[in-house]
Design brief:
- This protein is mainly α.
- It has one domain.
- It contains six helices and no strands.
- It is globular, with a radius of gyration of 12 Å.
- The chain starts with a helix and ends with a helix.
Length: 70
Amino acid sequence: MKSIKEIIKLHQKNGFVRQISRSLSLPRSTITNYVQKYKTSGFIHKDIADLDDESIYQRLLPQKRKIIQK
């Protein structure tokens, strides 16, 4: 699983998808997808600070998680 919390933290720090992609060795499309989901979710960093990545993933992409679990 990708570190969603780390992606969000780095995006808030510098906002450069390309830099985040290189530093985490993840595709830019993955970074962009998570950042867009985070922005449209209405959550703020404080809302997810104490959550693990699985919990964050379920909140940002609930429909995708249900499909994967079947």
